[in-house]
Design goal:
Blueprint lengths: L4 H18 L1 H5 L2 H28 L4 H33 L14 H14 L2 H10 L6 H5 L2 H16 L3 H25 L3 H15 L2 H4 L3 H26 L3 H7 L1 H10 L6 H10 L4 H14 L2 H17 L6 H14 L9 H13 L6 H12 L2 H26 L5 H9 L32
Helix pairs in contact: 1-10, 1-14, 3-8, 3-9, 3-10, 3-16, 4-12, 4-16, 4-17, 4-18, 5-19, 5-20, 10-14, 12-17, 12-21, 14-21, 15-16, 16-21, 17-19, 17-20, 17-21, 18-19, 19-20
């Protein structure tokens, strides 16, 4: 057990909590540990996604098949997004966490709220803003420099399409080069992950010191509502989807325990994306499906962020003493289906996306003043809410990958069940040996590919 990453991350989280309670002033200075770890992960995230997507699509050798996979994935994402937004609306209307709220509590957070509003303004709004500011690259290199995952995906898809047009032998040679680079990148990631306990310690110590129990008491209902809604979505909605696809959501969450603990410490799902790419492939999903669905899901399937958006919008409306009709709430949801697609998997992105959504919706409900006051109310607890968003996003994208792999006939169910019963078989840090599980077996022989290192 002492050799498992999750063990040391769990120890680090406990130590961070204790440090934050015992020495809060010193603990506030430990945030740099979490930031440093996140920065290290971000240096390899864009290259890993680029290489993985290129391998996943180019190795198919059939753009029609790749297009079918992409359409199936996007269809699933759209349904999941609409479901998450709807559940958030239902929870907000039933519990009304913002009703009777004292808006004077926002005074201390006005400066931070103005920063988020400024960030949202720079991001643009509507379909045109989304296309120009989030989707279409300005150069080949810039998305990698700025770590803009959605734009990296666009470049990777274009490169993969170009590679797919090559003759079979040339395509295989190019894919082999990318596979070698992939092995090197995953080796780098294994080294970086040894710093995960330090990142978790620093992040948790800072969170406890900065937002200790008393400071959060007036927003406890919103937090409980949000976390409870996320739990219902994961174990209720995703649980039914997983059962339909032939596996247990509880065992699947156990499979992802290392990654979930890292997210709890760092408050970011981006920190575990490289590990998930390797783990889900080792769990029985084909390299192609994992390489296309998982990175795309990090931009288009943010279930936790969707729940947060609708709950946050209703909370701000209720705190301002206003109400919205069902038709107006549905219209807001329709807008958030689009705005949620530009949210990244890093800390604070959900708050910026919420601000941008409120500005885009505008009207009587969300004036500049009410947005400023509402964001000031939420910004103080955004880090704790961010953990719930990141955990739900991670689980949701993992389930989506395995479900779509099944629909594609590219999931080795025998291997997947073995991994669910013994998660160590899919550990990305495990060195392959004679006891490692056999190569995944899919229904279509042509779908078989080597396992990611």
């Amino acid at each position: 057990m002492k050799r498992q990453l999750w063990f040391w991350v769990l120890i680090a989280i406990g130590a961070g909590i204790a440090f934050g309670l015992v020495a809060p002033e010193q603990a506030k200075d430990s945030k740099w540990l979490a930031d440093a770890f996140l920065q290290l992960i971000k240096t390899v995230t864009a290259p890993v996604i680029f290489v993985t997507v290129v391998i996943g699509i180019a190795s198919l050798g059939d753009m029609a098949r790749a297009g079918g996979l992409a359409l199936r994935a996007l269809g699933y994402f759209l349904i999941a997004t609409a479901t998450a937004l709807t559940i958030g609306l239902i929870a907000g209307n039933l519990i009304k966490p913002g009703a009777g709220f004292d808006t004077s509590a926002a005074a201390a957070n006005t400066e931070a709220a103005q920063e988020k509003i400024a960030e949202a303004g720079e991001a643009g709004s509507g379909l045109t803003g989304f296309l120009m500011n989030d989707l279409i690259p300005t150069s080949f290199v810039q998305p990698f420099v700025e770590n803009e995952i959605l734009r990296v995906l666009v470049i990777a898809i274009l490169v993969a399409a170009g590679v797919s047009m090559l003759a079979v032998r040339q395509r295989e040679q190019v894919v082999a080069v990318f596979e070698t680079v992939s092995k090197i990148l995953f080796g780098v990631i294994r080294l970086i992950m040894w710093a995960a306990p330090l990142g978790a310690f620093g992040g948790m110590a800072y969170t406890v010191a900065q937002f200790g129990g008393g400071a959060l008491s007036n927003l406890a209902l919103l937090m409980v509502t949000f976390w409870g809604t996320c739990a219902i979505f994961v174990f209720g909605v995703l649980g039914l989807v997983a059962r339909w696809s032939g596996f247990s959501i509880f065992k699947f969450v156990r499979l992802l325990k290392d990654e979930l603990l890292i997210i709890v410490g760092t408050s970011s799902s981006e920190t575990v994306l490289p590990r998930l790419l390797s783990k889900l492939n080792k769990a029985g999903a084909s390299k192609q499906t994992v390489g296309v669905v998982l990175p795309t899901g990090y931009s288009f399937n943010l279930d936790g962020t969707c729940i947060y958006l609708t709950l946050g919008a209703l909370f701000i409306t209720q705190a301002a003493g206003q109400s919205m009709s069902i038709a107006e709430q549905i219209a807001l949801c329709g807008l958030m289906v689009l705005t949620s697609k530009g949210a990244a998997g890093i800390t604070g992105a959900g708050l910026v996306t919420l601000t941008a959504s409120l500005q885009a919706f505008g009207g009587t409900f969300f004036t500049a003043e009410s947005i400023a006051v509402g964001i000031a109310l939420v910004v103080g607890i955004d880090r704790i809410m961010s953990e719930g968003r990141a955990l739900t996003n991670c689980i949701g994208n993992g389930v989506a990958t395995m479900v779509i792999a099944k629909l594609q006939g590219e999931r080795d169910d025998e291997r997947f069940q073995a991994v669910l019963n013994d998660p160590s078989l899919a550990d990305p840090d495990r060195v392959e040996d004679s006891e490692a599980p056999a190569e995944p077996r899919f229904e279509r022989p042509e779908a078989r590919e080597p396992v990611l290192a």
